[in-house]
Write a structure and sequence with these properties.
The chain has a single domain, classed as Jelly Rolls (Sandwich). The mean pLDDT is about 95. The strands form two sheets. The chain has a five-stranded antiparallel β-sheet with strand order 1-2-9-4-7, with no helix packed on it. It has a four-stranded antiparallel β-sheet with strand order 3-8-5-6, with no helix packed on it. Helices cover about 5% and strands about 45% of the residues.
Length: about 110
C-alpha cells in the first residue's frame, strides 16, 4: 500500500461508523464524500441507502449489487443506485473514495473526553 492520503485529508473529520477502517469525510449539505483505508478483510452486511459512487485507488473488493456480484480493482469505479440492496467484501490493503448521495450517510464522530 502507498503512503495513503495526504495530511489535509487526514485532518478531515472521522465518520461515526461500525466498519473497521481509517476514514475521513467532508460533511456538507449535498452529499458525503469519504476517503478510506482498510487494513484487514472486512464484510459490510447487506444494507440499503441512497445512491453511492466510488473508485478503487488500491486493493480489491467484491460487491453484490442487486444480486449481481463483481470484483473491483485499482482504477475501477462502481455505482450503487438508490434503494438497491448490496453487500461489500473488502480485502485488506484497500484504499478508496466513495461519495454517498445522502448528506447524512456518515456523520462526524463525536469526540469523547477521557
Amino acid at each position: 500500500m502507498s503512503d495513503g492520503f495526504p495530511d489535509f485529508i487526514k485532518a478531515l473529520p472521522v465518520p461515526d461508523s461500525p466498519v473497521d477502517m481509517r476514514a475521513h469525510i467532508v460533511p456538507n449539505e449535498y452529499c458525503t464524500p469519504m476517503f478510506y483505508e482498510i487494513d484487514k478483510d472486512v464484510e459490510v452486511p447487506e444494507h440499503v441507502h441512497g445512491a453511492q459512487w466510488g473508485v478503487v485507488l488500491e486493493g480489491e473488493m467484491e460487491m453484490t449489487i442487486g444480486g449481481e456480484t463483481r470484483t473491483y480493482r485499482r482504477g475501477d469505479t462502481y455505482t450503487v443506485p438508490a434503494g438497491v440492496t448490496h453487500i461489500t467484501r473488502i480485502r485488506g490493503g484497500y484504499r478508496g473514495i466513495d461519495v454517498f448521495a445522502d448528506a447524512d450517510r456518515y456523520l462526524p464522530k463525536k469526540e469523547t473526553t477521557p
